[in-house]
Amino acid sequence: GRVQTARAAGRLPVEAREGWRVLRALGGELGLGGFEFIDLVGLRAGMQNRSVTPIASAQPAAASNGLEVAATAAIYRTDAVVRRAAALQSHPLNIAPCVAMHPEQAAQLQVQAGQMVKVGTDAGKATLPVVLDERVAPGTVWIESGHGATAPLGAGRVTVVAA
Predict the structure, then answer these.
(1) 32-75 pLDDT per residue, tens
(2) What is the full DSSP assignment across the chain?
(3) Which of 37, 79, 121, 126 is the most exposed place for a label (fewest CB within 10 A)?
(4) What is the pLDDT of residue 60?
(5) Which domain covers residue 153, as residue numbers?
(6) Per the structure, how many domains does the chain have?
(7) Pfam families annotated for this entry (predicted)?
(8) 158 with 81, same domain?
(9) Same domain, yes or no, for 83 and 32?
């Protein structure tokens, strides 16, 4: 990453200390290496010329039943006040309930954009229109919570079949 710096907006109250000073003191008390610096310049000097090599991780085991759900909270449906604000309800970010999936996933399930599908979990079922979106990973569906139509689904993997 890039080096980022910030200046304090004001003085810390009474005996409060900057986070880096607290970490330096804790590292020193615990006898850990890498905490020999005495100021931010020393801390940055010890961090700069380091290269990080990411290690490969194992692929998660695929569950055998249903699709993974990427659920988000609908930004303008989070509480009673915003649900009743006409201006917020007409905002472009306030979309109708739907199930979004990758086009390859839709082809595998033999469904098309706009088609109604039955989405089910152990907790309940919902009938939602399909939206195709290449940003949704295959094997996953995106369902926005906060809608009456999506409330019965609860959490967990889902099955999707044509309605």
Answers:
(1) 988 888 888 888 887 766 677 888 887 765 556 889 999 898 88
(2) --------SSPPPTT---HHHHHHHHHHHTT-TT---SSHHHHHHHHTT----PPP-PPPPPPSSSBEEEEEE-TT-SSHHHHT-HHHHTSTT-PPP-EEE-HHHHHHHT--TT-EEEEE-SS-EEEEEEEE-TTSPTTEEEEEESSTTTGGG-SS-BEEEE-
(3) 79
(4) 66
(5) 68-162
(6) 2
(7) Molydop_binding
(8) yes
(9) no
